[in-house]
Design brief:
Layout (H helix, E strand, L loop, with lengths): L1 E13 L8 H5 L1 E18 L4 E6 L4 E6 L11 H15 L5 E7 L9 H17 L5 H15 L7 H8 L2 E6 L5 E5 L4 H10 E5 L6 H13 L3 H22 L6 H12 L9 H12 L4 E4 L7 E5 L5 H8 L5 E2 L10 E5 L4
Parallel strand pairs: 3-5
Antiparallel strand pairs: 1-2, 1-12, 2-5, 2-6, 3-4, 6-7, 8-10, 8-11, 9-10
Helix pairs in contact: 2-3, 2-4, 3-4, 3-5, 4-5, 8-9, 10-11
Length: 344
């Protein structure tokens, strides 16, 4: 028996950062995001020899251990260990023996929610294997608790819910970890136009998002007026962009993205840098009407809205920076799991 799972990565369109405590606890947060055709994958192969083997195919890392109720965190594939520890403690109630293979279509620290999406995919695989009846909110909340609470990793809540639910979603975040996911029914023609007009660009550099998020949390906690006001505006902008998408008013999207990028940079100085500013200016000069860093900032993926046949001009303008253009489509499905009988 082979158990497989995949979960989609996401583009954060608006409101990024307002899902992070303490801001979301005090003011409430709004996020608009959409999942794309880049995935985190997990495969479980049960074993009968009392061994555990964890293998990250894309990172070329492997951990082998004796089956136990808990695996120690030591900096080696700790995300995989964290999911296993939670599943055993809450559901299996006994040590398990298996191989767990993982792969992610984008590098860690790239701003597409890779870590949280991988956690969701692994939870999905375990749920499929052990027949654990988990709903979408259950999976997303468990993924959040494993990362943010049990492993102490800084970050927000949107990535886990995007990967679990899939599609275009407007998300609301409140105190006491209350989350409301509102799926959006975007016209197919609007989705196709978005795909046609968006350039997804990997800068070639990754970053440790937790450091940027820690700076954001510090500003929110200490009440830095400029930072908090920027988050207020980002939250409102998520509402405006949601309405523009639902009404098919895509001509406003680039303008909204540009405005949001200016607000986002006010949250903490670490969000942008001279290289990112230069890339952004080059895209704007070539015809892009707006764009932003995907995720916390500091590096990773950027995306640009390029209307009226300006897409190729923007791509050409980005070539001197040595990054990578990544093709994608928007996808509706969230985490998906299945089994394969090796004897079939």
């Amino acid at each position: 028996m082979i158990i497989r799972s995949r979960a989609p990565l996401r583009l954060g369109l608006a409101g990024g950062g307002t899902d992070v405590s303490p801001y979301s606890d005090e003011y409430g947060g709004n996020i608009l995001n959409a999942t794309i055709s880049l995935y985190a994958y997990a495969t479980i192969i049960p074993r009968s020899d009392g061994k555990i083997k964890l293998i990250s195919e894309d990172r070329e890392e492997m951990v082998e251990a004796e089956s136990a109720e808990s695996l120690e965190f030591d900096g080696k594939l700790d995300l995989l260990k964290g999911v296993y520890n939670r599943v055993v403690k809450q559901y299996a109630k006994k040590p398990l023996a298996f191989e767990l293979h993982t792969f992610v279509d984008a590098p860690a620290g790239s701003g597409l929610g890779t870590s949280s999406t991988l956690v969701v995919a692994i939870i999905g695989a375990f749920a499929e294997w052990l027949e654990i009846p988990l709903g979408e909110y259950d999976i997303a909340k468990m993924a959040y608790e494993i990362e943010r609470v049990e492993m102490g990793m800084s970050g927000g809540k949107q990535d886990q819910y995007a990967a679990t639910f899939g599609g275009f979603n407007f998300m609301e975040f409140y105190a006491d970890d209350k989350v409301v996911v509102n799926p959006l029914r975007i016209k197919q023609t609007s989705i196709l136009e978005l795909e046609s007009n968006i350039v997804l660009y990997y800068t070639g550099t990754s970053r440790l998002s937790s450091k940027i998020i820690d700076a954001q949390i510090k500003n929110a906690t200490s009440g830095v007026k400029k930072s908090v006001e920027a988050m207020h505006r980002l939250k409102n902008q998520a509402i405006q962009m949601k309405e523009a998408l639902l009404l098919g008013k895509l001509n406003k999207l680039g303008e909204n993205l540009h405005e949001g990028w200016e607000f986002k940079k006010q949250m903490t100085k670490q969000i942008s840098n001279p290289m990112i500013d230069e890339i952004y200016d080059a895209a704007r000069n070539a015809g892009c009407t707006g764009g932003k860093i995907s995720g916390a900032g500091g590096g990773g993926f950027m995306f640009f809205y390029c209307p009226e046949n300006t897409k190729q001009k923007v791509i050409n303008a980005l070539k001197p920076f040595g990054g990578l253009i990544k093709q994608f489509n928007f996808v509706e499905d969230g985490v998906t799991t299945w089994k394969i009988d090796e004897n079939d």
